[in-house]
Design goal:
It is a single chain. By secondary structure, the chain is α+β, with helices and mostly antiparallel strands. Helix content is 66%, strand content 16%. The protein folds into two domains: 2-177, GAF domain (Beta-Lactamase), CATH 3.30.450.40; 179-241, Orthogonal Bundle (Arc Repressor Mutant, subunit A), CATH 1.10.10.10. The chain has helices at residues 2-26, 32-46, 71-83, 87-94, 102-108, 113-119, 151-205, 209-222, 227-241; strands at residues 52-59, 62-68, 98-101, 123-132, 135-143. A five-stranded antiparallel β-sheet has the order 2-1-5-4-3, with helices on both faces.
Amino acid sequence: MTGGHEQLTARLDEVTVAMESLTAMLDTELDLGQMLQAVCDHAVQVVPGADMASITLVREGVPETVASTDQRAVNFDREQYRIGDGPCLRAAETGQPVRVGVGAVGDLWPQFVTSAEQLGVASFLAAPLTVDEDMSGAVNLFGFGEHGFSELGTKILELYTATVVIGLRSARRYFAARELVDQLNRALETRAVIDQAKGILMAAHRITAEEAFQRLVKRSQDGNRKLHEVAAEFVAAVATTT
């Protein structure tokens, strides 16, 4: 009894260290791919019976393995994507963990039995990653033993993936904010060059701002080109002749 308690305590200590490491990553500008790879590496260490790990992200309905500890895990993921079902896709779709042994896999997904035997995988555990309405996924664990993973292993993985979801959501917000800033900067640059071209036309032809703008619009339509490209080309041409 004491031995089991000590093993559980040691396992929880490992989970705590892994989660602290992951949380520390969230406070840095570490590449998202590196963070997800670290998630796979830690998951194999902290979940009993896990021999391989991968992460599936589903964006716009398309699943993709974005990190793994073993090419065999990637190959099995791809087999699921090809068929359109399996432990990782089921977890991503339902938002519920999927824990099965090879026997249950044969009942649920008989088309995977051959692949599982070829890869030497006998146990599967997938915990969902519910990021937002545009992104879901799963952390997928594969075991070579026929243990089917334990309830404790499932709870440990769910606890760990909760931190992963926080990281993914933060990354999504960061990239969305950065894209918005880039769009605003491009809009400001575009407006500046259009205003500059309008000013040149107004001075050269003694016309109003609206008339100058319409001339630029006509050039844009005649050449089937974007307005800011026409304006930039016009400004550059004037600069070379002055």
